[in-house]
Amino acid sequence: MEDYRAIIGENIRRQRKRRHMTQEDLADLTGMQPSSVGKIERAQANPNLNTLLRVADALEVDLPELLAAPSSERMNGYLHNVYLPALPEPNRSAARALLQILNDVVNIELDSSYVQSLVAQVLRLIRHSFYEVISSRCQDTMYRGLRVYGIKATFYAMGRAERVKVIPDLSTDRKAVERFVAQLNRNFVSYDNFMDLLEDFMGGDEW
Predict the structure, then answer these.
(1) Which of 39, 72, 106, 122 could form an SS bridge with 45, CB 3.0 to 4.6 Å?
(2) What pLDDT, in 10s, does the model give residues 42-98?
(3) Of 71, 51, 60, whose CA–CA distance to 21 is shortest?
(4) Domain extents for the chain?
């Protein structure tokens, strides 16, 4: 039980400091006393599920992030927008393996942009997808010359792009397409899911 409390306390302290919050700030957001927050972080208290849910909500993290052993996913703080348990296989296993390797070989704090670049390269070597915004001029007679925005979707497997899907004239709203692409990249969308979501986007669903 002591190890379990220590894991929770360390995770709460780390997430709190990442958000530049004091123990008093977290106490105010959760309805606890600052001393109670301190005891939880020092593994001197055993918080119940309701308390942990309030803490997770205040820290804007998913509950499993407070329960996972930091030694296995310590680098998760560098991987913004990547929630490992939500990743489909084999992306989840590859991401966990990458984190473990980094934990084993790195003894200094890494630059986050370098880690982001490294992760992007590794993910492209397994079954993975990447989406980007493209632009062109409309060729339709009525709207010839109008700037339109589309999507280039690339699906990778075994180190190669196995499928590329280009939709050149999806919308004239650049920001809407950029939001859509950002959402796709955050969720590691497969080809089949991409086509379904594309229909939703073209049907006017907000992204």
Answers:
(1) 39
(2) 988 888 888 888 998 899 888 777 877 654 444 444 444 455 555 565 566 666 666
(3) 60
(4) 2-68, 71-124, 128-202
